[in-house]
Amino acid sequence: MGRLIALLILIIPGIVAAIGIKLMRDALFNEVSAIFNHLVLQFICGLIFFIVGLTFIGGFILHRDRKRNLTQ
């Protein structure tokens, strides 16, 4: 059960990071999403989503490795 919860904790930020990548890609190809008015705003929100998702996943892995004494 614990592994399933850990998997779900990693899937949600992964989806957020993937949405961020999609928003940045769409902004580079001049495709404005329905939520955003400007391409710059869409790109910045996509970058924030990507950084938040990646940071959460990295922090989770670092916390797990420190807990198991795998880091120096």
Please render the helix and strand layout as text.
Elements (H helix, E strand, L loop, with lengths): L1 H27 L10 H29 L5
What structural keywords apply?
mainly alpha, 2 helices
3D architecture notes:
With 72 residues, this protein is an all-alpha fold. It has helices spanning 2-28, 39-67. Helix 1 (2-28) runs antiparallel to helix 2 (39-67). It is elongated, with a radius of gyration of 16 Å. The model has no long low-confidence stretch (mean pLDDT 93).
Q: Fraction of residues in helices?
A: over 70%
Structural category is mainly alpha
Specify the number of helices. Answer: 2
Output mean pLDDT. 93
Number of domains: 1
> What is the strand tally?
0
What characteristic shape results from the CA principal axes?
elongated
Main sheet? none
The rounded distance between the terminal residues' Cα atoms is 29 Å
Strand content: under 5%
User: What is the C-alpha radius of gyration, as a whole number of Å?
Assistant: 16 Å
What is the subunit arrangement here? single chain
Report low-confidence residues grouped into runs of 5 or more: none
**What is the string of SSEs from the N terminus onward?**
HH
